[in-house]
Amino acid sequence: MKSNPLSDSIHRMLVLRLTAAAIVLSLLFAAIAFYNNQERMEQEVFALARLRIDQLNVYIQDLLDSSESLSPAALEKRLDEFVDASGKIVVDDGRFVLVRIYDPAGQPLLDRPDDSFEAIAAVKQAVDGAQITPLKPDEFKVVSKRLQGQPFVGVRVPLTNSSHEVVAQVLGVFAVSPAAIETIRGNVLRTMLYVIGLVIATALVIYPIIAGLLGRLSRTTVKLLDSNLEILQVLGGAIAKRDSDTDAHNYRVTVYSVYLAESIHLPRVQIRSLIKGALLHDVGKLGIRDNVLLKPGKLDEDEFTIMKTHVEHGLEITDRASWLKDAQPVVGGHHEKYDGAGYPAGLQGESIPLAARIFAITDVFDALTSRRPYKEPISFDESIQILESGRGSHFDPVLLDAFCSIAQALYNEYSGRDDEKPKERLEEMTNEYFKSNVADLLT
User: Fold this and answer.
1) Distance between CA atoms of 47 and 157, rounded to whole angstroms?
2) Domain 244-441 has what CATH class?
3) pLDDT digits over 118-170, tens only?
4) Which of 95, 235, 279 is nearest to 174 (CA)?
5) CA triple 48-54-58, angle to 5 deg
6) Domain boundaries, the chain
7) Rounded distance, CA 232 to CA 440, Å?
C-alpha cells in the first residue's frame, strides 16, 4: 500500500504528543505525590512533637508558673528527668536531633543537640540563623528544609503557664530517616508508573479510533490539497496558453525558481509561496483585452500602460482567495527592477520581495532561452551575458550570482522543452513542499 505522507506525519505527531502527555502527567502527579508525602510527614512530626511538648509542658508546669525558677539550669535538670522518665523521641520516620528552648523574647535558654548525629553542625548553623518570633498560646510553626542533601522538619511550639500565657517556646528539629526517604521515593515512583501505565492504556484504547478519524481527515486533506494544486496549475497553464501557444514556460520558470530558492536555502514556507506566485505571476493578464495582449507587434505607449495594469488585476484576483494571498509578492513584484525603474510601485533593492527578485531572474532567463512566436531561442552564453548586463539594475547581484552557478545544469535539463518533463518535475516539487509534512499543511 502506498504511504500517505500526511497520514504518516499525523500518526507520528499523535504518538509524540501521547508520549509527551504521559511524561508531563507523570511528572505532575509525581510532584503531587511528593508534596502529599512531605505534608503527611510534617503532620506526623508535628503531632509527635506536640504530644511530647504538651507532656513536657505539664511536667515543668511549676517552673513555667514561676518566672524566678525558669533558669537554664533548672530547665536542663527537669528536661533530663523528663527524658529519663519518657525516653528519647525515636520513631521509624526518624528522630529529633536538636531541641532548643527560648524565652518569650526569642533568647535561647537551653540547647540540647544530639552530638552523635553526623549533620548536627549544619542543623545548629541553620537554627542559629533562623528568626525566632513570638508565638501565641495556640500558635505553632512547621517548616521543611534540606541540609547537606537530607530532609529535616522544624517545629516551634509555645510553652504556657497555668494562666495560658506563653512564657517560653520549644524548637525541635526532626531528621527524616533514610527508610522514610526511600518510602517517599517509592511512593513517587509508583505514582509515576501508575500514571504512565494509565496514559498508555488509555492511548491503546483510543488510538485506533483517533487514528481512523485522522486517516479519514488526512485523506480528505490530501484530496483538497490536490484539488487546489491542480486548479493552480490549470489556471497558470491557461494564462500561459492565452499569451502563447504552450504552458511549458510556466512549468519551467517555476522549476528554475525553486532550484534557485533551494540554492540560497530559502525556508520551505517561502518556497511554497514562490511556487504559487510563479505559476500565477501573469494571472492578471486575464483582465487585458485581446487586441493589447495578443498584438503581434510592439505596443505603443497607451497599450503598454494598459498592459502594465495586469499586475493590479493579478493582485485583485489573488486577493479573493486566502490560499492564494501568499502568491502576491511574485504576482505584484515580478516587474520591479533592482534599481527602482520597474513597475507598478518602483520598488528598489531589498524592498522588492525576495520571491519576486528570484522570479525576475528565472523569468527572463527562460524567455531568452525559449522559442516564442516572435523570436528564436538565444544561446546559453548570450542569455547569461544579457542577464549580466542587468546586474544591479534589473537583477539582484547576489541572487544573480547564485543563479549563474546553477544555470548551465538547468539549461541542459529543461531549456526549450515543451514535453512533460518540466511538468513532472514541478509535480515532484509540489509534493515535496506541500505534502511531505503535516506541519507544512497547517501553515
Assistant:
1) 11
2) mainly alpha
3) 999 999 999 998 888 898 988 888 888 888 888 888 889 899 999 999 999 99
4) 95
5) 150
6) 5-185, 244-441
7) 18
